[in-house]
Amino acid sequence: MAIGVWISLFAYFAIMIGIGVYAMRKASATAEDYMLGGRGLSPKVAALSAGASDMSGWLLLGLPGALFVTGLADAWIGIGLFVGAFINWVIVAPRLREQTVHYGNALTIPAFLANRFPTKALPLRTVSAIVIVVFFAVYTASGLVAGGKLFESAFSGIFNFGGLSDYGVGIVITLGVVLAYTVVGGFLAVSMTDFVQGCIMMLALVLMPAVVLFGEGGGGFGQASETLNSVDPTLLSWTEGLTLVGWLSAVAWGLGYFGQPHIIVRFMAIRTVHEVSVARNIGMSWMAISLIGAISLGVFGRAYAIRNGMDVADPETIFIILADLLFHPLITGFLYAALLAAVMSTISSQLLVASSSLTEDFYRLFLRKEASDKECVNIGRACVVAVGLVAALIASDPNSQVLALVSNAWAGFGAAFGPLIILGLTWSRTNGAGALAGLIVGAVTVMAWIALGWNGSFMGGPGVYEIIPGFIAAFIAIVVVTLATSDAGEYQHIER
Predict the structure, then answer these.
(1) What is the Cα–Cα distance from 97 to 113, expressed in whole angstroms?
(2) Which is an annotated Pfam family here (predicted)?
């Protein structure tokens, strides 16, 4: 492996760890500082942090890999995500920023739900924290799988540490660097590194498709389209071969945004409600550019591979293969860093949210109610490490698919929290009984749907993405149970 690649990677690792050290003093002051950065994120940092923590390794591996195989039909996933993200910024962001302060200055989503629905505070806080920790273990594992695939594909045969495969070494290095800056720097370090990582990811997703199309061996749009049409005309069709169920399953990814704790927690940390609109404009612009780049990479990467006789065994590694093939080692190292940025930005956010729930919603709630801020910060750091190790164990199977792991966790969060967050913020009549019913019904429906295999095949036809039945069932459960019950002492008024 060329020395230029290592220079770029080591520079990236050093910057990430340096940001963690820089943020350490601020992060260690109080629990609010460690878990929410003191609610002082600027619009640009909040926007790119939300985007980078959202667009994990699936943006550079999973989504291009899916489009590499099926063509533009899977681009509906990106469209659904863009629409969902925009609605999330408009409906959820300003209300959540305001109401988490109004209801007891909640530092976590479970704490906000408990404060919003005090008659069911304990079960809501407990169940939501369990859902967060369980699904984040799976979600974090998807990022580690992406890191493992990078090292397995790019550095094959280089590492030989204690019998660990290249894939295993990739998991260890990825997790190790993330833990280094997350443990010491907390939310502020995670958000600042997300900003840098978001910039790197966007640049990579502009550079890579441009070189694939117009560099040597690319041939431009015309030749790329001609190549794809000669192999399979449906590759450039948005609708051909796409069933209604398949289309709904693709665009339904957008429903997941309303319930992703690692994304919506950024809304809680923006400096003021008035800066939400600025952050939204920055975040949506970043997302549009990044999604277009990922879609172009998958589709036109397939054309490049066909034209140049490339054998791509794992479509999810097309970004890695092209980075190594088309660029100078220094640029290749930068592109590898972009992939690691996508992976690490999400892993760090998820680890921090999971550890915050373990600290605030388990440790402080059940074990040490009188725990000091300093003690909670230290417990939070220990929980970051613990959740990371569990995720590494889940990710240890090298045959794991990034997009599959992400889709399961995304659906779990979207169905469990999405309807509850929307109704809890906008429908003042929502009560604790309804909230608890929706939380449980959403999570259970998703897990049952996956267990029964109905996301792969449903009633003899194509599978239905589990977020659809989960989201609908949770929404209905909240409304029906709320209308059928009355919680004495429940907050009935929400300040806008």
Answers:
(1) 13
(2) SSF
Q: Tokens representing 368?
A: 């040490």
What's the distance, CA 427 to chain centroid? 27
Hunting for tokens 């589990």 — which residue is that? 466
Q: Does 275 have pLDDT greater than 60?
A: yes
Q: Are 447 and 474 in contact (CB under 8 A)?
A: no
Question: Would you say 320 and 33 are in contact if contact means Cβ atoms under 8 Å apart?
Answer: no
Residue keyed to tokens 């195989």:
69
Q: Do 143 and 312 contact (CB within 8 A), yes or no?
A: no
Direct distance between the N- and C-terminal alpha carbons of the chain, in angstroms, rounded to an integer: 56
Q: What angle do CA 240, 245, 251 make, to 5 degrees?
A: 85
DSSP state, residue 447:
H
| Interatomic CA distance for residues 55 and 204, integer angstroms | 13
SS3 content of the chain, % helix, strand, coil (to 5): 80, 0, 20
Nearest CA to 354 among 189, 194, 187?
187
Distance from C-alpha of 173 to C-alpha of 169, rounded to nearest angstrom: 6
DSSP state of 233: G
Name residue, tokens 């066909």.
306
Query: What domains are defined for the chain?
Result: 3-402 (1.20.1730.10)
Task: Report the amino acid identity of residue 178.
Answer: V
Helix axes 121-154, 318-326, angle to 10 degrees: 40
Which DSSP helix (H) or strand (E) runs through 182? helix 166-214
Q: Which of 383, 456, 440, 420 lies closest to 140 in space, CA to CA?
A: 383
Residue 218's Cβ-count burial label (10 Å; 0-12, 13-18, 19+) is buried
Q: Which residues pair with 440 in a beta bridge?
A: none
pLDDT, tens digit, 9 for 90 and up, residues 64-115? 888 888 888 888 988 999 999 999 999 999 999 999 888 888 878 888 898 9
Residues 6+ apart with CB under 8 A from 153: 314, 317, 320, 321
| Of residues 314, 310, 351, 308, the one with CA closest to residue 181 | 351
* Burial (CB count within 10 angstroms: exposed 0-12, middle 13-18, buried 19+), residue 28: middle
pLDDT computed for residue 472 by the predictor: 96
SS3 104: coil
Give all strands (DSSP E) within 106-221, no chain letters. Answer: none
Kindly report the pTM of this predicted structure.
0.82
